[in-house]
């Protein structure tokens, strides 16, 4: 039987992992998923993810692809899903598995990605690992006006980690806004065709320079124009960041 390409939809709580991608000296989500798949399929498995999340960052939705000739996945996908979840740690969950065309690629075929950054303002020991705590409430209206400078197709070198191996720092952002949500939580929503390493946390840090530290709204425009990471704000902590959606032209999420 020829190998079939499968997509897996996963979610994970990132606190105990050094990001998605396999690392030499640290535990990653990809490592745990590969190990579980290899136990079930009894052959080495190489997974490719839609992107890499940094250490401590969470994912509500991430797609991964791999190839297998094991017919049982097609015959009883729910049973395979149940067995795979049984082998994974409690903080990694597989939500669905399905066949795709042979050339489908979890990373390169993705057309849209969305993130959320969560802030809370009352000290709470039960949510510290899920949200970032701030003592002062920022000027949300001012930050949203500054966020409008992010929209469109631009070079976002100012928000990228240095020495990353990418062909371009140009991204197209289609949404960037702060929204008050239940229980006094403030959430930043951002959507783009692609993101640079550490980009969202640097964007949030820069917006907080405006919303809390009194920088003018035009500061965001100046930072983007500079293409200089040292001009932007400090990256905010990882625990408040969630990858929430990865979209493909051939999938309806």
Features:
6 helices; globular; 253 residues; alpha+beta; Alpha-Beta Plaits; single chain; 10-stranded mixed sheet
Structural write-up:
- With 253 residues, the chain is α+β, with helices and mostly antiparallel strands.
- It folds into two domains: 4-100, Alpha-Beta Plaits, CATH 3.30.70.580; 112-247, Alpha-Beta Plaits (2-Layer Sandwich).
- Helices cover 23% and strands 29% of the residues.
- It has six helices and ten strands.
- It has helices spanning 29-41, 72-75, 77-87, 140-147, 199-211, 218-226; strands at residues 4-12, 48-49, 58-68, 92-100, 112-120, 132-133, 152-155, 170-181, 185-192, 241-247.
- Strands 1, 2, 3, 4, 5, 6, 7, 8, 9 and 10 form a ten-stranded mixed sheet that branches.
- A hairpin with a 3-residue loop joins β8 (170-181) and β9.
- α1 crosses α3 (77-87) and α4 crosses α5 (199-211).
- The mean pLDDT is 94.
What is this structure's SSE topology?
Elements: E1 4-12, H1 29-41, E2 48-49, E3 58-68, H2 72-75, H3 77-87, E4 92-100, E5 112-120, E6 132-133, H4 140-147, E7 152-155, E8 170-181, E9 185-192, H5 199-211, H6 218-226, E10 241-247
Parallel strand pairs: 3-10, 5-6
Antiparallel strand pairs: 1-3, 1-4, 2-3, 5-9, 5-10, 7-8, 8-9
Helix pairs in contact: 1-3, 4-5
